Amino acid sequence: MTSIVSIRQLTKTYGNGFQALKGVDLDIEEGEILALLGPNGAGKTTLISIICGIVNPSSGTVKVGGYDVVKDFRKTRSLIGLVPQELTTDQFETVWNTVCFSRGVYGCKPDPALIERILKDLSLWTKKDSMLRELSGGMKRRVLIAKALSHEPKVLFLDEPTAGVDVNLRRDMWLVVEKLRESGVTIILTTHYIEEAEEIADRVGVIDGGSLLLLEEKAKLMTKLGRKQLRLELAAPLSALPESLVPLNLTLSDDGTTLIHDYQGEEAQDSIASLLATLARANIHFRDLSTRQSSLEDIFVALVAEKAGERA
């Protein structure tokens, strides 16, 4: 696929000496949804701000649609829509006027049909004549998305798009994001809701300490790093794990009623069959079996903790 955003050796050091980004390399493919995960202060917002032309890089290059974000600022900014984390809106303006004005800021000709479609897609059409101060926090966040889409950008950045939004609105907005992707818009979102990335992202990037620790397709990441757990509820409790079973990476619960086996996601299924056969030969029987796979949150927490340990 074609990269619509290309970042090479990007660094940012602020005046107080804080190094927010440390040599980041990243290619974002046209039409994908990329989720950027990381703890507070990891560098996510700084990265987005540089791509959008809000913050100047200390070194390195960023290109959007083949244009340099510093040398070709006007061109790259016209290709980008940004939904900031903060709810920054004119409280005494109507939804309709706010979105139309945002389109005009980019020098685009009025297009009432487009604005109507955007507002309807975001479930804002019935609020088009309402002043922003009358809207809920979730609705105001939808208005920010409408403003960002008003000039028909090719790339949309969503910085914590569902912060403060209730569960139902959050899922509605996921559907909106998926619909945007289907229309050809490339979407990059930062989020603290791991399930958000797990639900809608094609690829996941993990940033911590100003460095891109990992960039992987979501499915491959879950397979490579996700751990699985097999739990066997025993037909009769064991007082201790038999010596013959010690090499099998089994853990016996404190009450002796459950055997637990942890294994990597890519471990072959026949190895589990072999384990069950070994238990049968040892005359250990079970009455129930269940499995659990690591979530993206488990993977994220483990990865950041591992990298933090390396830096210590």
Give an overview of the whole structure.
With about 300 residues, the chain is an alpha/beta fold. The chain folds into 2 domains: about 5-225, P-loop containing nucleotide triphosphate hydrolases (Rossmann fold, 3-Layer(aba) Sandwich); about 225-295, 2-Layer Sandwich (Alpha-Beta Plaits). About 35% of the residues lie in helices and about 30% in strands. It has 10 helices and 14 strands. The protein has a 6-stranded mixed beta sheet, with helices on both faces. A hairpin with a 2-residue loop joins strand 4 (about 60-65) and strand 5. Helix 3 (about 95-105) runs parallel beside helix 5 (about 135-150). The longest helix is centred in the middle third of the chain and has 16 residues, at about 165-180. The chain is elongated and about 80 Å long. The two termini are about 40 Å apart. The model has no long low-confidence stretch (mean pLDDT about 85). One of its GO terms (molecular function) is ATP binding. This is ABC-2 type transport system ATP-binding protein. InterPro entries: AAA+_ATPase, ABC_transporter-like_ATP-bd, ABC_transporter-like_CS, ABC_transporter_ATP-binding, P-loop_NTPase.
